[in-house]
Each structure stands twice: as structure tokens, then as C-alpha cells.
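@channel sequence for tomorrow's demo:
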Amino acid sequence: MNQTIQWTKRNFISIVGFILAAAAFLMGLFGYINQHATIMVNNQEVELYQDSPFLGDFYANISAELASIAITILIIDAINQRRNKQQELDDLKWQMGSKDNVLVLEAVRKLRGKKWLIDGTLHGIDLRGANLSSAKLFMADLEGANLEKVKLNGAFLKMANLRNANVTVEQLATAGNLEKAIMPDGRKYEEWEPIIQETPPAETVTTQLALPENNQHSKILLLLAGAGIAVVSSVFSLWARGRWDKG
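C-alpha cells (generated this afternoon):
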């Protein structure tokens, strides 16, 4: 019931336009019948209605006026709906490009509900700096999108289209799922997987793992240096004491 009421409110102007169009059709039909309908009586055609020409003109004029009003209303309503739709799309694009992850996730949900997330509407969208962490971007069509500095941590990009998107390998490596996704160069993720495994972050981890061994060498060298200094100090003290005793 509530959905019916909401639908009626959203489409009230269109409903009025269609009602007027139906009224125009009925008035025109009734006017035509009034002027031209006949019946057979004793093998002779007899006019069903014998109204004055004035009444016939009245029906014709009313029908034309109602049709004109209906067409005008429907055209204006179509323009308004298209403008409202574009405004809603622009607002959701802006929201999806936010640094606030909560706003982004809500925008993604609404865009999916409108089918805009997967039908190519978002081609070339500018999302620079957006926080798409954990976003459900399954089958999202982001061809040509600007994803510079976008956070993709844990983003679900399975079967997403990232063809010609401005995004780095490092960013893609943080995504949660890229299965069957189309990469920026047009290849599938499965063909990109070896490249992602050889990215700089892996080298950074290796370097970090090697640091403890270097630290151990440094500690040993410091201990040896300290021991050497202690020995030299002891020898020097004994020599100085011997000189003092002789003196």
C-alpha cells in the first residue's frame, strides 16, 4: 500500500496527463458518434443522434484542447524526470568520490539499485582520492575511471571492468577480490596475477625480514669494539702504573 502511494506521488503529473489524454479520446469518440452514428430502420439509415452542428464543434474543440493539454503536461513531466534523474546521478557520483567511506558505500548501494553501476553510466568517472575500501563493486563498469590515490583496501571487484582506468598495480594488490576482472590494459586479472605478485611491496617485506640479521652483525661489531677498547685501556693503565712506580 505504501509503495502504491509513493509511486502515485512520484508519477502524479504523468497520471494527470494520461487521464486528460484518455478524456480527449473519449470526447472525440463521443463527438464522432454523435455526428455520424446511424442505425438501420426498415432498410433505411437513420441518424442515431440529431444534434446541432454547434454541439459537434463543441466536442471537437474540447477533445483537441484536452489532447493539447495532455501532450504539454506529458512533455514537461518527461523533461523534469530526465533532469531529476541526471541530478540524482550527479549527486551519487559526487558521493561515491568522497573520502568518507560510509558515504561511498551508500552511494555504491544506490548506484547498483539503479543499475548505473553496471550499465556503463560511470564510464570515465573521476574518483580521485575516494575511499572505496570494502566497497561491493561486483561487475562494476568503471571503464576509463580516474582512480588516482583511491583506497581499494578489501574492495570486492570480481568481474569488474577497469579497462583504461587510471589505477596502479599497488592499488590493485590491496583489493579483496579481482577474480575475472578486466584490468586497465584489457587483460583478465588471471593474466595479471604474476605481475601483482612481483610488485615492490613484496621487496619491501623481504628487506624488512633481512633487517634483524643486519642488526645482529651490528651488535657483534659493537661488542668486539667495546672489548677492544677495554683491553687497550687495561694495557695502558698497567703501563702507566709501571712508569709511575719506576719514577
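heads up for whoever presents: The mean pLDDT is 80.
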